[in-house]
Sequence to fold (712 residues):
Amino acid sequence: MTQAIDATPAVDLNDPKYYFNRELSWLKFNDRVLHEAVDIRTPFLERLKFTAIFSSNLDEFFMVRISGLMDQINAGIDRKTADGLSPTQVMAAIRAHLRPKLRQQHDFFQAELRPQLQEHGIYLLDYEQLNADQQSYLKQYFESQIFPVLTPLSVDPAHPFPRLSNLSLNLAVAVKNPDTKIQKFARIKVPSNLPRFIGLPPELVDEDTVWVGSTLENIIANHLIFLFPGMEVSGHYLFRITRDADFPVRENEADDLLVAMEEEISKRRLEGFVCRLEIEESMPDDMLENLMQELRVAEEDIYELTGVLDLKDLFFFMSMPLPALKDQPWSALTPPRLKSVERSEESIFSAIRKQDLLVHHPYESFSGSVQAFVESAARDPHVLTIKMTLYRTSGDSPIVQSLIKAAENGKQVVALVEIKARFDEQNNIIWARKLEDAGVHVVYGVVGLKTHTKTTLVVRREGDRIRRYVHIGTGNYNPKTSKLYTDLGILSARDDLGADLTDLFNFLTGYSRQNNYRHLLVAPLTLRQDMLQLIEREINHVKSGQQGRIVAKMNSLVDAEMIQALYRASQAGVEIDLIVRGICCLRPGVPGVSDRIRVISIIGRFLEHARIFHFINNGDEEIYIGSADWMPRNLDRRVEAVTPVVEPEAMQELKDILDIMLTDNRQAWELGEDGVFTQRTPGADGDARSTHELLMERTLKRDQGGTIDSIL
Fold:
């Protein structure tokens, strides 16, 4: 008897209909950020903060992603991405999305947030709204503090159009000679080294107000007569430019990478082409045409806006002394196992030797764990060597100071500084040189790769043996962002991890061609293939009638090969939950392709930055944390390290974190098959489960020695 042949055609997983576009997915992420500003459940000043974050995010998006697309279009490159869109099509879709979204943002600030500021005693006023005494004060302030800094630049045959710096806010001024009636154009840069918002002194405002003031550009605009004496000022209009800032460094041709990077940074400020021109919508056509011609900007790259330009400066209002209008303050707690170290009852090394320690920032203290680990290593007379990768950190970081002190104490200190970390290059160069001056051996990474891994290796003599201690994390060694970003790290004295990190640092600093690691998953060497094998193993378990499930948390999911592996897993019957904060090119819920895949995004008071990968493995569970997203750049063009977490207590903590997020009904957004994100809402009982609130509560209970089961 002949077996029936399945006539169902195989699904072509390369079909563009199964993928979302990377850039358009990012725009939807930024829309979710803006929603936090619109959402009345968000404390009022935090709403201003999210408005600022939306604008700040867009600046970087234009400087890197949009400018890159424009480069491709100008070069005639028409290569389509996995979603089937060409650069020209993507640019058209971006512009169509952004124009109404930016108008919505500015209208929302002008019509709602700005008036509501006054309800809370904060008055951001236009100059004409000020009384005579207040105007007199600002006139004196202008003459003494602002006027000496300004440089009006005229544009005529003798004065060519000035070079405008990236992200600069400018006033375009129409000036007329009263005798000849000839009108000329002048440009005034609004100084970025002066406060954007100028407040009035207490004696000039009512007692019940918190702050009263105006913008720097508004004050300048109302005193233009000081800049053009004897002339008639017939109009003034704000504009702002964004330049291409994605300059590739030819590492193979650079004799000195530091010098090459400094040259590229200077180009970024003044030489990149203008990819966006924001203008006051009242700007007259002739002035706009002049700007377009001089800046070589096409009409489709002009954004006409109302009210205050450059809303990222709204971060200023977070400084207002109004705690009731902000999130409840949170102070990170020292992990319970390290409290005895703080009391000097034992060393941090003995605490780590007892058992691997999982730390979770900002709930648990960065300074009381990771920073304390490095500081202790710098002081400890038994420590011989400290090796560390540094991608982004603050210039005044205690981590950097500890490395300097360790070198001064005679230890061998190696710092791999990634000076190609975009927009942190100048900062990284400054403190890299400080490290070198102190005797630290500074390495600038591997040619052709960015070193993005977050790792520290400490070598310590203990009696007649040498022991290695490690930290492997998901976030940067930055004490400032550790208070804002959620990140994980493992502190361990396991020999196998110490040996792996030794091999990794030899790869980074020398000529090692190490391709095999005991437990670490390392990009660009093994991570992609290892992750694909872990997914394939879940498929095989299901095919043999066993359990198969994957829960993965990351910042972005873009890589087509990883997405196809997840599609195959879904088709085989593997249940998959993805927690993706930002870009997600995978289309969930497609019958026969991804109907077993669910995607959520968590947006809230902390920026979700940790990466967790959980494979159920038919009950023999494996969990990994590390620095890599599932993006081509992380898998192929960066040095990344992902580590297994093996201690049962730490594994359970990671599973609990994932469960809390998967049941979130306050900060979670569900991605639909149609590409639309829908925010979850509390059920009939009205019980709101906020990931960040629950994890803060959980950390407090653990600190107090209470049970945490009730939180789950």
